[in-house]
Design brief:
globular, 195 residues
């Protein structure tokens, strides 16, 4: 009986040890709203407090716990089990950061899934515990409604067709496509820098 109790305690401890959670302030520090300055997008001054409040409001403890439970913590207690808290980011080029959304997701290992099923994650942006930003741009380089500034050209297969591939983003500017603007006004919202 004692052995069974010790195994159960070890199993429950392993469920938590194998779980990694996003730090709200760390995530907020890696999201910077951009504004146009001349023809360049630069981080908006004094936006950090707005972003921090937005991230904290988007990640309430009860919702994070519910997502962890939906991802089946019993699986994490097993050897080799792993949970990395993941959010999907819907970032909008708007001066009010609250027009953007952060949604918790209970999807499994998105990094592995993005390599095997990139079509399922097309144009989507994720932040994964551990400071990883993962996106699968479409053929035009779009991620959501934004594009990567100085973004990569789409990879092509042997027949010249575009191939979707996941990208890990570090300090990348995602901006509203310039074609959508008649002319970017100085100080107007341009997009976001992530990572």
């Amino acid at each position: 009986m004692l052995l069974l109790l010790l195994l159960l305690i070890a199993y429950v401890a392993n469920m938590f040890r194998n779980s990694s959670f996003l730090k709200a302030d760390g995530l907020a520090g890696q999201l910077k709203p951009l504004v146009w300055a001349e023809f360049d997008a630069v981080p908006r001054a004094k936006a950090a407090a707005d972003v921090q409040a937005f991230v904290r409001r988007s990640l309430p403890l009860f919702r994070r716990a519910a997502t962890w439970l939906r991802a089946n913590p019993f699986r994490f207690g097993l050897p080799g089990g792993r949970y990395r808290e993941t959010v999907e980011l819907h970032l909008m080029a708007n001066r009010d950061v609250n027009h953007s959304r952060i949604l918790l997701t209970a999807d499994g290992d998105l990094q592995a899934r993005s390599a095997t099923e990139p079509e399922a994650l097309r144009r989507r942006l994720f932040a994964i515990a551990g400071g990883v930003f993962l996106a699968v741009p479409d053929e035009e380089g779009r991620i959501g409604t934004l594009v990567m500034k100085d973004g990569p050209t789409a990879a092509v297969d042997g027949e010249g067709r575009p191939v979707l591939r996941p990208l890990t983003l570090r300090r990348k500017a995602l901006v509203k496509p310039l074609a959508s603007w008649e002319s970017p006004e100085q100080g107007a919202a341009a997009g976001w820098q992530v990572g």
